[in-house]
Structures are given as C-alpha cells and as structure tokens.
Design a protein that fits this description.
Elements: E1 9-12, H1 18-29, E2 33-37, H2 51-62, E3 67-70, H3 77-91, E4 96-98, H4 114-144, E5 151-156, H5 159-163, H6 169-189, E6 194-202, H7 233-239, E7 251-255, E8 258-261, H8 279-292
Length: 303
C-alpha cells in the first residue's frame, strides 16, 4: 500500500538526530523523497559535521527510499535559499518544509549574555523564517504559473514557547515567535496553496534529556516509550500529506500517544468606559477584569 506522502518532496531541517531524524525516516516510509538537512553541530550550536545527515540518508536508501543530504546553516539567508534549490533541482519540486533545527544556550535571564540570546533567537526564529521565505517563493511562482499547489510548512514551537520556561528565556521567546510566525504564514500564504501549522512536541532528544532526565526515563521490559521522538512524527507526516489540506494556522501539542490543539491568546474580558481613564481609576477596572479572566497556565519550572 502506498504511503500517505507518496511522491511528495520534503525538506526536514535538523534531521541528523532526534525529532528531525524520526520525521525524515517516517516521511520516507510514507513514500516521500527527503532532503535531510543537518549542520551537524553540538547541542550548543558549536562545531559541525556532515556525518549525521549522511547517516540518515543511508538509512532511507537502505529501506528503498530516496534522499539527499544537506549541510546548510538554516539561519543563513543564502544557504537556506540553496537548500530549497537543491530540493527542486534534485527532485523537481518542493512540497513540504519541516522546520526543526535548533539548539540551546540555557541561562537564567539575569545571567544571559548578548551572544547567548542572539545565537538562540537566530537559529530558531530566523532559522524558521529563512527556509520558509525561499520555499514560498518557489510555491508562489508555481501558483502564478497556474499550477495547483498543495504545499505545507510545519514549524516546531515548544511548550516553552507556549507557557514559558524558567532558565530558558531566550529559547521561550524564540519558540513563542515561531508560534506567531506560523499564524501569519497561514493567513498570508493560503492564496498560494500553502498551509502552515506548528507542533509543540515533548520527547527525549539531546535538547531535553538533561532538563527532563527524571521524567523522560526509558521504559523497561519493552513497554511503550512515551518519550521516544518517533511518537511525534506521525502527526508531522500527516500534516505534510495531502490529507491535511483543510488544517492551517494551528499549533498542536504532541507527546507519546497524545495529540492536543493549543489554545493561544484570545481577546478576554473587557471594560469600556467610553472615554479616557484617570490613572487612579484603572486599578479597580483591572481587578474586575482579572476576576473574570481565567488563570494563566504556570510557567514551566516556576516554584
């Protein structure tokens, strides 16, 4: 039986290990041709090697699939453009972009350096924007040529981006930006036949194993490994398939065998005086509004 992504061309960034590797392998199992992108950097973003991406390509080819490796820095404008071009030149077009690449520089905000802030925001936020910007240029050109485009952008946010996470202010801010970026992509790119969604996954990867060492332990005796990165990939692959054409502008939380839809910022309780407030009046109004509003979800790691 053909897979749900048969013949589709997919880029997965940060696909040498962890979640990205799991996504790339599952796309291949479902019939997609995959560009396996990975800079091969260490957890903090330093260094680099083509080894991880090449290893995943070999795994895909061993199962009879088609794949090529790409070592682009996704936050570099020209390298991101060349990555999209490689997909088109190798496989004839691009259908799906999965933005997954990232790294951590965890620090309490009062101790975070400018370099630690810039590095994390760059790889996560610009590293989502740049590949998508070049991908949508490809899709827009196809749409303007009269082709029926059925394309997908799948971004990777985080629970830290939705709720905040103590000790990860830079990462939380970048991941929150990705969630908002997804909403704008969905609104602006629908005219070109492109949907945009995001996931906020919980899984055991290099980025999470130290933070959640106790709660993300492996099961014993062959039990269900709820924290295995492979559990996240079915949702990602479905979002990349033609079956998801009517789903866009959503952020999904996914962990183990659980999928949820995150409910973002909404307009809440409001009081309209009809004229300008005096500063001394504001306190009572805010107190009434807060009594009506739901309590915010707690920040991860807050006491």
């Amino acid at each position: 039986m053909a897979g749900i992504c048969e013949g589709r061309v997919v880029i997965v960034t940060g696909a040498g290990r962890g979640l990205g590797r799991a996504h790339a392998l599952e796309f291949a199992r479902q019939g997609a041709k995959v560009v396996v992108n990975d800079l091969g950097a260490e957890l903090d973003g330093t260094g680099g090697s083509t080894g991880p991406a090449a290893a995943v390509v070999e795994e895909i080819r061993a199962m009879g699939g088609e794949a090529v490796a790409n070592g682009a820095d996704v936050a570099d404008w020209n390298q991101a453009e060349a990555m999209v071009a490689q997909a088109v030149e190798t496989f004839g077009r691009l259908d799906v972009l999965v933005n997954n690449a990232g790294f951590l520089r965890d620090r309490m905000l009062a101790n975070t350096s400018e370099e630690e802030w810039d590095a994390v925001v760059r790889v996560h936020l610009k590293g989502h924007f740049a590949p998508a910007r070049h991908a949508v240029t490809h899709w827009r050109e196809r749409a303007k040529a009269g082709e029926a485009v059925d394309a997908r952008v799948i971004n990777t946010s985080s629970g830290a981006g939705l709720m905040g996470s103590v000790g990860q202010g830079n990462y939380s801010a970048a991941k929150a930006g990705i969630a908002a970026l997804t909403l704008v992509q969905a609104a602006e790119w629908a005219r070109y036949g492109v949907t945009a969604n995001a996931i906020a996954p919980a899984a055991r990867t290099r980025m999470t194993e130290q933070v959640f060492a106790q709660t993300m332990a492996r099961p014993v005796d062959g039990g269900f490994d709820a924290m295995a990165p492979e559990n996240v990939s079915p949702l990602v692959v479905w979002l990349g398939s033609p079956l998801s054409a009517d789903v866009t502008g959503r952020v999904f939380e996914v962990e183990g065998g659980r999928i949820g839809v995150a409910d973002g910022w909404q307009h809440g309780p409001t009081f309209d005086k009809g004229t300008r407030f005096e500063p001394a009046e504001v306190g009572a109004v805010v107190a009434d509004l807060l009594r009506e509003a739901p309590e915010p979800a707690p920040v991860y790691g807050a006491g």
